[in-house]
Design a protein that fits this description.
Layout (H helix, E strand, L loop, with lengths): L1 H25 L4 E2 L21 E3 L6 E3 L3 E2 L6 H4 L15 H16 L4 E4 L2 H10 L8 E4 L14 H15 L4 E7 L9 H16 L3 E7 L3 H10 L6 E5 L13 H7 L3 E5 L19 H16 L6 E3 L5 H12 L6 H17 L14
Parallel strand pairs: 4-5, 5-6, 6-7, 7-8, 8-9, 9-10, 10-11
Antiparallel strand pairs: 1-2, 2-3
Helix pairs in contact: 3-4, 5-6, 7-8, 9-10
Length: about 375
């Protein structure tokens, strides 16, 4: 353990220096557009590709690709074949077809300049740590062991959270992660002040000991998240919130966006495709709706990226073709014309009408 902690301390020192240098070299520019028309220094951008845009992830100083890989592999059976399991997250990560799918998707992400993957449960973290073995220098990995974090009442103490990250890193064969973001309850205001204190303490400890380079939370509760950012700025370096093609930023000087701006918080958007409700097809390679769904996906990504404040949307991508499609969206004209906006609006209205009951909370995120 002593050798492991030495390496973590070394990583912490070098990581902080690199982030500071990167921020200094690229500030005040917040983005490096595809093609780098501004001529920014790209040498410190991880896995830089001139066809990808990169955005500064708040006070971490990291330059992150404008679209990243969400960890969920929902509908992957439509690509690799086999029966749909009762619970898609229970799919065996040891199946050769599954491992090949995740390896190939990560490979295509690397080829396209995508440099961040978010894994938010034990199986995802193990699957992506395998897919990244031997090439951690190409992608940042963000982790949340949500089964053993504060969503479970048994993991709401500093000691339990410390044990959870150590256990999770060991199981995944990782010495550290680039981001530990604890998954709060969907209605995070249900947490007591004492529970949040323990959570923030664990996050700060993980960063201080080099287990995580940066820390934060995911939350679906706007007012509560604002309070957390203001009360625990050192533990809230990065946040994940819902962000769909219906989301709009309200320039309220007292709202969530104002707090994120004041405290320079990195911001990732989950569920950009409204849990796939925006699509007509099932994501299978021969779906008759494939071309229309590809176009809708690009419209959604372009619309979300019109907000310069968000670091990146985080779609779950289940095939190399889907990776190519979202990478293409980054290079396309950003602002939607009237016909494109009308098409996206129709798709989002359909998504809202078809949202499963477990995702109705997405409707609370039409405004940030």
């Amino acid at each position: 353990m002593a050798d492991e902690r030495i390496s973590r301390r070394d990583l912490l020192r070098t990581g902080a220096a690199a982030a500071a240098g990167m921020a200094a070299s690229l500030t005040p520019a917040l983005t490096v557009a595809a093609g780098n028309p501004g001529g920014a220094d790209t040498r410190k951008i991880l896995n830089y590709n001139p066809e990808m845009e990169y955005r500064r992830c708040g006070k971490t100083g990291l330059m992150v690709s404008a679209v990243v890989l969400g960890g969920h592999w929902k509908r992957v059976t439509q690509v690799i074949g086999g029966r749909e399991s009762a619970g898609w997250m229970t799919s065996s990560i040891d199946q050769p077809e599954f491992q090949k799918n995740r390896y190939d998707v990560v490979t295509r992400c690397i080829q396209r300049g995508i440099n961040w993957v978010d894994a938010c449960n034990i199986l995802e973290i193990q699957a992506y740590s395998r897919a990244l073995k031997g090439r951690r220098d190409k992608m940042y990995i963000a982790c949340s062991w949500c089964e053993e974090e504060v969503r479970d009442a048994n993991f709401r103490t500093f000691a339990k959270l410390k044990g959870a990250i150590d256990k999770g890193l060991k199981q995944a064969g990782l010495d550290n992660c680039d981001l530990w973001r604890i998954s709060l309850l969907t209605d995070s205001s249900r947490h007591t002040d004492a529970e949040i204190d323990e959570c923030a303490r664990a996050l700060e400890w993980a960063k201080q000991t080099g287990r995580a380079r940066f820390v934060g939370v995911s939350s679906h509760d706007r007012p509560h998240l604002k309070k957390l950012i203001e009360k625990y700025p050192r533990a809230m370096e990065v946040v994940l919130t819902p962000y769909t093609a219906k989301t709009k930023v309200v320039t309220d000087e007292h709202g969530l966006w104002a707090a994120m701006k004041e405290h320079d918080v990195g911001w990732f958007g989950i569920k950009p495709f409204a849990s796939n409700s925006v699509f007509k097809g099932d994501s299978s390679p021969n779906s008759p709706a494939r071309e229309e769904d590809n176009r809708i996906a690009r419209l959604a990504i372009r619309h979300i990226l019109c907000n310069p404040a968000i670091t990146a949307p985080m779609p779950g991508l289940i095939s190399q073709q889907q990776v190519d499609n979202v990478a293409l969206a980054v290079t396309e004209r950003r602002k939607l014309d009237a016909a494109e906006k009308a098409e996206l609006d129709r798709a989002m209205d359909r998504a809202w009408a078809g949202l499963p009951g477990c995702y109705q909370w997405l409707k609370d995120w039409e405004y940030v």
